[in-house]
Amino acid sequence: MPIPAFPTPDVLAARQKLVLDHFHDEVRKDWDDVLSTFPHPRYELIPQMIVHDGKEAVRGYYHDTRTAFPDQDHEIIELRHSPDAVIVEFWLMGTHRGYLGKIPPTGGRFRVRMTAYFVFDDTETLVCERIYFDSMTMLKQLLGGLNLKRPSNWPLAARCIRGLLSMSSQKPDPALTNTSPPTFE
C-alpha cells in the first residue's frame, strides 16, 4: 500500500472548516445544514457496530439521539489531519431524558470522550463520520445515578437492564465486520 500524499494547506483548511461547521450545526440541531456537509450521509458507530447510511437513516439517528439527549453538546479537545480524514477528539455530554434505543430515561448525565474520523474521498467529498467511544463508560454514567438503595428505583433499573439486554442481541452491520487487511509494501 503506497503512502498517500498529504493534502495541501488549502485542502486541510477547507476540510477543517467543513468539520467544524458540521459540529456547530449538530449542536444547533440544524439537520439540513449538517446533511449538506456530505452528499450521501453515513455514520458508523463502532461501539454498537451500527451503520446509518443515507439521508433518512441519518435523520432517524439524529431524531433518536436528540430524543434521548435533548441537551446533547460537545467540547472539542483536539483536531488532527491525516491524508484522508480529519480526526476530532471531543467530549460528548448530555442528559438522558428520552429512550436510548430500548433503555428508558434515567435522568442521568453523561460526559464521554470520543474520537470521530471524518473521512474524505479523493474528490474531497466527506463520505463518512466514523465514531469511536467507550459505550460502557456512557452506560455506567447513565445507570450509575440510580440510587438502588431506594426500592422505588428498582423497576426503572430492571427496565434499563431489559432494554440493554434486548439491544445487545442485535447483529453487527456486515459493512463493519466484513473487512480485509490492507497490503503493505
UniProtKB/TrEMBL annotation:
It comes from the Bacteria. InterPro entries: Cyclase_SnoaL-like, NTF2-like_dom_sf. Transmembrane segments: none annotated. Pfam families: SnoaL. One of its GO terms (biological process) is polyketide metabolic process. This is Putative ester cyclase.
